[in-house]
Amino acid sequence: MKLILASSSPHRRDLLNQVNIEYEPRKQSADESRVTITKPVEKVKALAKIKSDVTETFEGEVILTADTVVSKDGIIYEKPQNKEHAYRMIKEFSGETHQVHTACLLRSLHDEKMIVSKTDVTFYDLTEQDIENYLQTDDFSDKAGGYGIQSQGAVLVKEIKGDYNTVVGLPLAEVVRELKKWLE
């Protein structure tokens, strides 16, 4: 079996490369706006599924798709529309704990397995200057919840409970363990 990564995320590619998992990238063009679910776990599962459904699959391949959703008190925080939107999100996370859910779908022509991982992330109490300094980095762009734990956003995070790589966008250990069953 050959692994196909149907994701444009450079962080997912980096994680697979980190553990020497060979894969072939394949573009997928899912219309994520079709998913209007408001429950975080259900939404992240649906997003991983539609990405998989639009990815062409051939015999001997395992497709890996993934998506990440950030939520607090059951409310989903999407990618920020602009700097002001990112500011509001980071301000709401300040001194609080929020959840990051990543769903991964492994699929072949004959089988599929959904993996869902949740990590609690607690931010430091942030001053206005802390938030402004972070936003100056432009790290918030194109990231669910407006921050990247693997980059400049690391300075915002006081602690996590769960899998760090779930926050990055791929619960690596869990995915690798499952992939061993598929690729042998």
Descriptive report:
The protein is an alpha/beta fold and 184 residues long. The chain has one domain (2-183): Maf protein (Alpha-Beta Complex), CATH 3.90.950.10. The chain has helices at residues 10-18, 40-53, 83-93, 128-136, 164-168, 172-183, and strands spanning 2-5, 24-25, 61-72, 75-77, 97-107, 112-123, 157-161. β1, α1 (10-18) and β2 form a beta-alpha-beta unit. It is elongated and about 55 Å long. It starts with a strand and ends with a helix. The model has no long low-confidence stretch (mean pLDDT 94).
**Backbone CA Rg:** 17 Å
Largest sheet: 7 strands, mixed
CATH hierarchy, class: Alpha Beta
Which structural class best describes the helix and strand composition?
A: alpha/beta
The total tally of domains equals: 1
Short description, anyone?
This protein has helices at 10-18, 40-53, 83-93, 128-136, 164-168, 172-183; strands spanning 2-5, 24-25, 61-72, 75-77, 97-107, 112-123, 157-161.
